[in-house]
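Q: Glycogen synthase, please. Structure only.
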Amino acid sequence: MNVLSVSSEVFPLVKTGGLADVVGALPLALAGNGVRMRVLVPGYPAVMEQIAKPRKVATLLSVFGDEMRLLAVQHAGLDLLVLDAPAYYNRNGGPYVDSTGKDYPDNWKRFAALSQAGAEIARGILPDWTPDLVHAHDWQAAMTPVYMRYTGLEHVPSLITVHNLAFQGQFGPDIFPQLGLPASAFSFDGLEYYGDVSFLKGGLRTAWEVTTVSPTYAQEIRTPEFGMGLEGLINARAGELIGIVNGIDTAVWDPRTDRHIAANYGPGALRARSKNRAALAERFGLGEDDGPIFCVVSRLTWQKGIDLIAEVADWIVAEGGKLAVLGAGDQGLEGALLAAASRHRSRIGVVIGYDEPLSHLMQAGADAILVPSRFEPCGLTQLYGLRYGCVPIVARTGGLADTVIDANEAALHARVATGFQFAPVSADGLRQALRRAFTAFREPKVWGRLQNQGMKSDVSWERSAERYARLYDSLLERA
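A: Structure for Glycogen synthase:
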């Protein structure tokens, strides 16, 4: 089975969050299920600099009149198609924002072009490969099934995966005439969304199937609280909505072989974690006492509950804990965390930015990872935590609720607990979970069981890849 995956990022070439990890890991996991997946990704400077010996396989014009080249290349075990379109992607900033952190004003054009290229590949523009099915990811690729629907390719199966419904690709109606679509596409049954154009809404309307990245999130987005204004459409498509929890690349994230950590270890052999703990404390300037080290690896935003962490930071220190934070985001939240670090030198350390090797050391050295998200479609950091014996403390929402078994009395007695869940998602709720974690940490046998049970969890892509393969099969049967 040949499947085209269309995405705005893919690990290890370009990454701003979990989307890249998923798009990079899924093709490798699917290979064992008889699926050959090729990933179409934009030719950002970071991508073009890393790929070696790309081969031009097609040339096409975007609907905006710019020439685009499709390059085929193998990289890190992935079969990639790179859209080389300098007019859209040769920028000095990131994939979505400029060097000042502002969205590129032509993002609608940049990702419409990506989607158009995806549709043309589905049409058969490549001389030696045509996909049986197209899999689009998030709003940046959501126009792929739209272009397929309105350019005579509605017979080709398609699905869209929503990694985060909060990001919808909403633009003013003035862009619609430039998209190269018939007037009928700007309607309630197409792209029109309260007078604007919504790329994600278009994808949700036109794709054959809709998936999201955890079963709980699939139910949550059917409600006004989590549906972000699209719950009506999502409920209308409930029969074609499936939640499949993400996995992680267990070769990249393996404490037994990880090159980014100070000492390797595995389940049942956790003493070596102490060397990673010492290395982490040194990196963040934390004191080397016996108090638990809590870590945060996240975008620093309200959605991720970072304001709650800033609110309880003084309390964590007063209780004898320490805090290590890695991330970037809202300047106000960055400032609040840096101020806390200034108040509590040797107890709180903050690194603004993103550092992939450091994130590995944090999972290997911290005692627990905090994930207090107000909503979280799946989340990957808690899966890394489970894999590394870094006990997750998570909000009871989305994929966090699906992947962490709360250390309540029954679960502790049955020895199946892997972390701590809390609700409501508030500073008091987080404090309550932290109290339980402090209590467990003071009992080494209890804490060790939490770590070992978490490390036994199946966080790989194996089961989820099988579910995707079965879903692809069912779509082809309908074709």
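A: Brief note, in case it's useful. The mean pLDDT is 96.
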